[in-house]
Design a protein that fits this description.
Layout lengths: L1 H20 L4 H10 L9 H6 L11 H4 L6 H9 L2 H4 L33
Length: 119
């Protein structure tokens, strides 16, 4: 869950810096982000918060702008049971130990020998 929050913060930071570099208005960038559906949920942050889409510069049907009751239980299930969010991103790139059995023999290095030293 923290990874998802971190990604959202980074997305908003990128949008704000891009709007400032293009001499755009930062509130329009935030409005566009609030109307963009989230992956895995299929609803935008505005729909999650207010139950409706927000009015933008693009023409929108009035039926989409009217508030609708949100299904909190279904949204919570999508957030908690999403396999993509719970998967470890490093699980595909990590390797196991080279000797997986407890009885496997480890070959000694031929150039190393035991020496005694006085400390």
């Amino acid at each position: 869950m923290l990874d998802r929050i971190h990604e959202m913060v980074q997305t908003i930071k990128r949008m704000l810096t891009k709007s400032q570099s293009e001499n755009g208005h930062p509130y329009i960038a935030l409005l566009e982000y609030r109307n963009t559906p989230l992956d895995g949920i299929g609803m935008s942050p505005a729909q999650l918060l207010m139950g409706r889409r927000l009015k933008t510069k693009l023409p929108t049907s009035t039926t989409l702008l009217t508030p609708k009751g949100s299904k909190h239980k279904q949204i919570q299930e999508k957030l908690t049971h999403n396999p993509a969010s719970s998967a470890n991103p490093f699980s595909t790139t990590t390797k196991g130990p080279p000797f997986t059995q407890a009885t496997s023999n480890v070959p000694p290095d031929s150039d190393l020998s035991w020496c005694s030293y006085l400390i």
